[in-house]
Amino acid sequence: MSVRVPKVVTMNDTAIAVSGLRKTFGDKVVLEGIDLEVPAGTIFSLLGPNGAGKTTTVNLLTTLMKPDGGTAKVAGHDIVTEGKAVRAAIGVTGQFAAVDELLTGQENLQLMVDLSRGRAGDRVVADLLERFELVGSARKPASTYSGGMRRKLDLAMTLVGDPRIIFLDEPTTGLDPRSRRTMWSIIRELVAGGVTVFLTTQYLEEADQLADRIAVLDQGRLVADGTPDELKRRMPGTHVRLRFTTVAELDAAARIFPGATRDDEVLALRVSSDGGTKSLRSLLDRLDEYAVGAEEFSVHTPDLDDVFLALTGHHTEAVQ
Amino acid sequence: MNSPSTVMLRRNFKHLVRNPTSVFNAILMPVVMMLMFVYVFGDAFSVGVDYVDYATPGLMLLAVCYGLGATATAVNSDMTKGIINRFKVMDVSRGAVLTGHVIASVLTNLLAIVALTGVAFLLGFSPAAGFLDWLGVAGIVVLLGFAAAWLTVALGLAAKSPETAGMASVPLVMLPFFSSAIVPAEKMGPGLREFAEYQPFTPIIETLRGLLDGAPAASDVYPALGWCAGIALAGYLWASSTFKKRA
After folding, report:
1. Does the pLDDT of residue A70 top 60, yes or no?
2. Fewer beta carbons below 10 Å: N end or C end of chain A?
């Protein structure tokens, strides 16, 4: 007896695999050989300041530019030798909204449908207008749209033809906080539908909010790679804060952890820790061992801005 | 019909309709020029024949050139406003967007020339051309429009901004004035006369003039065809190499 197993996209499929990717402009090295892997159905975020090489990476992976070294496969196709197959599998929303300003929102979407030659169904324009809340302005020229609406239209155009892998180059740069949140929820919905998202951003909060994995790009090199929590845990700044009710307790605890920092004013002690369960358990065990009880116990992890500072030795604004 | 080129062509026509200034430039401007030259200056030029009969072939060429500014600007807007990258990362022929511009440019030219010829007839234009001569006129106009369009697409691709792209096509609009379009070359001063006699537009205009008179001269037709083919090829090669270089 044979059981027919439907082909589903699983976390084990690799959507994007990059190895030693290099790009130079003249004698300026923009990418110094980066490696990364994006599992299908996940959000991957390339995080870095302006000029780090994020857009160049997107341009290489979407076949807009040719690499000077290294290899990359997108949807299983080589970006250099199988550019056409790569383009058939991807959707790209660039840094600047690529909409046709003289056409209406509806006509912009119809243009994409016409160019997709049968890969898009009849209802696709109406569906996308509805999904992106653009029905009311569908018949107005895109030049009259606000920045947020333009980005939404741009992303809607990218989705015509149902690409399985979507590249978003700084999708929320220049948007107000409300439009940014709308964009975030749209991106989350995409991934819920099985799409893989490759997202670049210079906003640490954005990567933290959206990404399953983050790679930090600095001056053409990947300086870190991991889940948002992994990255935060790897930071030396992670610590446990213990608060006591009496100075005697604080003194006792300070003797147990000689390397800790005391804050006598609030009767607190800061103990370095990687934040993992093992080290936390041993920390609590040691307190127990000496019969010292803390009134309050909390783990503090740095935010991604601290991560960037610790990884690169400079603030995100330092490279311009 | 939904080939990428026809989709792009439809897009270009929507642009044209929504941008009345470019329609004015492409279709009304040549008509205004005709009215001005025939009514205002016409009696001052003695060209041996009725002035409207002399000037119409030259103004046809002017009509082709007036449409080019819009083409250059449109091509450059596509390049600088990011939409070209959207087309380039889609699984469609990368040249379709340029072909769309070229065909739109040629069709606009034809529209402008039909309008111009209609006005010429109202002004008393009386060509001696037979059916085959008219076919010849149409053929030369399409060929010239095609050649000029590729050259203009290249200019539009090479320019830094839509504004400079519009400016880059100005020499093409000026060139007919230094040819036999408005007055015969032999009436011009020394230097300018030689330039007018040997520049590409003169044999093309003389070919149109010959066809409309019902008596085209081989000594005009062959250089005219040669120039058109040469300009088309040069424009196409320049446009393709610039298109590949720009992201």
Report:
1. yes
2. N
